[in-house]
Design goal:
Layout (H helix, E strand, L loop, with lengths): L3 H9 L3 H7 L1 E5 L1 H9 L4 E6 L7 E2 L2 H7 L8 E6 L12 H11 L2 E6 L4 H13 L4 E4 L9 H7 L7 E4 L2 H6 L5 E10 L9 E6 L7 H4 L4 E4 L15 H16 L2
Parallel strand pairs: 2-3, 5-6, 5-9, 6-7, 8-9, 8-10
Antiparallel strand pairs: 1-4, 2-4
Helix pairs in contact: 6-7, 6-10
């Protein structure tokens, strides 16, 4: 049986200020919870409707009371938020950037991406394409928001997320910085490198003007619609998938 205090704690973690105060976040579903456990995230408590040695047994009704999902998925866990010097995060943007430069890998940077579903999906996309580091501006949605965690479908366990001042990051950057912009050049006609940082911008405003000044390669995903009426833009997560796919296709040749 789950206590009222446990329910209160879990429900409070919907808010960022409470997650920071308690240093805890919520993960739901067997796959997400298992991936985080395998990656070394430290569990605070686990609740399950089926017997498992590491969990407190609860009823389906109790799970519905604590779940943030419309259709709860058997298990819900509270994990400790990794500290800045843990293996899950890098201590500073500079050490993270040095790692990126030394390994000659692609990274992503999110400039004010605010929809939790988009952030979670982008983390999952990065995982799929073998991109293991994402830099986030402070106004990007909190990675430990329950909606973000759920949208990653376990990929949060495989990708390093670093919140930092992007302007400071780019000021020390010696690698190419790519950005998708309406005044960019056709991505399918540009030279793309196997290293660098790909910047994705806010859902409504795109990449901020200050960050644009640091873009060294301006890219455009072309619109192939030939009629008078067409979509104004692509969803940022879809644009990220298209961009990552083209980089990996090109650099794998």
């Amino acid at each position: 049986m789950i206590s009222k205090n446990q329910i209160k704690l879990i429900r409070s973690l919907e808010l960022k200020k409470n997650r920071r105060r308690e240093n805890l976040f919520v993960a739901e579903g067997p796959k997400v919870v298992s991936d985080l456990l395998l990656a070394g995230y430290v569990p605070h408590s686990i609740f399950s409707t089926t017997e498992r040695p590491d969990a407190q047994l609860i009823t389906d009704e109790e799970l519905r009371r604590i779940s943030f999902l419309q259709h709860p998925q058997e298990v819900l866990a509270l994990f400790e938020i990794p500290t800045a010097n843990s293996q899950k995060q890098f201590a500073t943007p500079h050490s993270a950037l040095q790692r990126t430069a030394n390994s000659q890998k692609l990274s992503l940077a999110l400039d004010g991406v605010q929809d939790p579903g988009n952030v979670g999906t982008i983390i999952r996309i990065a995982d799929w394409f073998g991109i293991d580091t994402i830099y986030c501006s402070p106004d990007t949605a909190d990675v430990y928001n329950p909606k973000v965690v759920q949208a990653t479908m376990g990929s949060l366990a495989h990708v390093h997320i670093i919140y930092c001042d992007l302007l400071e990051l780019f000021a020390h950057c010696q690698c190419p910085v790519y950005g998708t912009l309406l005044d960019g050049k056709n991505i399918y006609e540009q030279s793309l490198s196997a290293d660098g940082i790909i910047v994705m911008g806010n859902e409504g405003n795109g990449i901020s003007e200050a960050v644009r000044q640091h873009i060294t390669h301006r890219l455009l995903i072309p619109n192939y619609h030939t009629g008078d009426h067409t979509a104004e833009s692509l969803n940022v997560a879809i644009a990220t998938a298209i961009t990552c796919a083209e980089f990996k296709r090109r650099t794998a040749l």
